[in-house]
Amino acid sequence: MAENMTMEDIRKHVRVYMYVFTALGVLTVVTVAASYLDVSFYPALVIALVIACVKASLVAAYFMHLINEKRVVMGVLISTLIFLICMFALMIASHADQEHIASLL
Amino acid sequence: MPDNMQIPFEVTPRRDTGVNNAKLGIWLFLASEVMLFGGLFAAYIFLRIGAEAWPGLHIPYTDDLAIRADQILNVPLATLNTLILIASSVTMVMAWASLKMNDFRKYRLHMGITILLALGFLVVKAFEYGDKFGHHFYPETNNFLAVYFVLTGLHAIHVTGGIIVNAYFWGPGAKMWTAGNARDKMHFTNRIEVAGLYWHFVDLVWIFLFPTIYLL
Fold first, then answer.
1. Are the beta carbons of B207 and A56 separated by less than 8 Å?
2. Which residue of B has its CA nearest to A55?
3. Do B42 and A88 touch (CB under 8 A)?
């Protein structure tokens, strides 16, 4: 995305970086505050991961310029995410299988 | 260097991919890093769902068994480190923006702050580790501490790698800009963008490590 940017484009980006920085700081405080909510483990996990995903999206979209990135880069990332999900799925399936075997013994 | 000796598409985009090779290369490297940390996160989930107690340690100076990681780990220090890494991501992208605006002095300033913040992160991490060792908490103590030390340790190694690369571009590597022609300056800006992508990834990993290891 950086190849054809004018000076004015860069100045606009710098303003956006400051907004994103503020948002990330606020979300970090929200993450810590949310961890003190009186909820059980799984809702707490979901809350923590949702906030982390929002923060990660802000970093990836604006600092890593993914918001304007070419399709080939998006393709690399999407295929990586698919492989990552497959790896987690295999691990969860393996765990479920072990529990099933244990219940039979 | 003559034009025909240049590595093609180092800075200019390829017609088929639409991006230059340096950028595609770093994204492929980051994809492999996602799988590396993903594998360790998978191990963490596997160990945690199979554990009878997590973190499974006594709270220091008490006989009580900890039921949350934040009773063992130092959340204020980790929060400080999160803010340090976020700030360093901003200064890193500002370093790149400064070069795009042809302002080398501001580049040096922002890159210098990025390096100092990264060193600050490691100093805070060293205090954290020192505290754990002081309580005789080691990676071999139990699975919780093994996960904690492996994931945060691997992340700290990545931070160290980033510091080395950024320090090179702050110091000797910057000759490419100060003593170079217009094309060298374009190459240097491209290198800072690529180094920045790596650095933002290091920040991204911490964004997931912090809540999942320290707060749950």
1. yes
2. B207
3. yes
pLDDT at site B10? 80
pLDDT digits (tens, 9 = 90+) for A40-74: 988 999 999 999 999 999 999 999 999 989 899 99
Distance, in angstroms, between B64 CA and closest chain A CA? 19
Whose CA is closest to B130, among B77, B85, B82? B77
B123, B97, B207, B202: CA torsion to nearest 10: -60
Mean pLDDT of the A7-24 span: 94
Averages of pLDDT over runs of 10 residues in chain B (216 residues) are 70 86 95 97 90 91 90 96 98 97 97 98 98 96 96 98 98 95 94 98 98 94
Cβ neighbours, 10 Å, residue A7: 10
Q: Which one of A21, A64, A84 has the shortest CB-CB distance to B90? A: A21
Whether B38 and A88 lie within 8 Å, measured CB to CB: yes
Note the ipTM here.
Answer: 0.91
Q: Do A14 and B28 touch (CB under 8 A)?
A: no
DSSP B213: I
Provide the shortest C-alpha distance from residue A77 to chain B (in Å).
7
pTM: 0.93
In this structure, which amino acid lies at residue B72? I
A63 vs chain B: nearest CA distance in angstroms? 6
Rounded CA-CA distance B15/B161 in Å is 32
